[in-house]
Amino acid sequence: MDQKTHDKGLEIRKAVLGEAYVNNALKSADSFNKPFQELVTEYCWGAVWGREELPRKTRSMLNLAMIPILNRPHELKAHIKGALTNGVSRDEIREIFMQVSIYAGIPAGVDSFRIAREVFAELDKG
Fold it and tell me: Which residues form the Carboxymuconolactone decarboxylase-like domain (predicted)?
């Protein structure tokens, strides 16, 4: 493991998804999935999200387009919150999910809109 890339990834991961979310993922890691958590932190968040060629907002928007296609609602919820943190507006999220609906199918759009509304309601409550 490259410690520098891992540390950069951990910083970005916490900045995007929130410190509590990441700490919970790491705290619940055991001997079975700890290597996976390290891989995600180093490669996904450090090696890719840590690149300078795309801003975090753009990376978040790409994730909001891809994750519904992969039918990963838990990840979508986390990345909607992260996208808002990265400056993606609710209007932009709506437009991304409109695009997903047309190119990936209405069921993917239905789930995406439902999950986004749940996230927005949760955030609006406080």
Answer: 36-118
Domain extent at residue 8: 1-53
Q: Give the DSSP per-residue string, 30-75.
A: -TTTHHHHHHIIIIIIIIITT-SSS-HHHHHHHHHHHHHHTT-HHH
- Neighbouring CB atoms inside 10 A of 26's CB total 15
Distances (CA, A) of 101 to 86, 104, 106: 23, 6, 5
125 by DSSP, 3-state: which?
A: helix
34 plus 70 within the same structural domain:
no
**Structure confidence at residue 9 (pLDDT):** 96
Q: Are 85 and 95 in a shared domain?
A: yes
* Reported pTM: 0.90
- Is residue 126 predicted with pLDDT exceeding 90? no
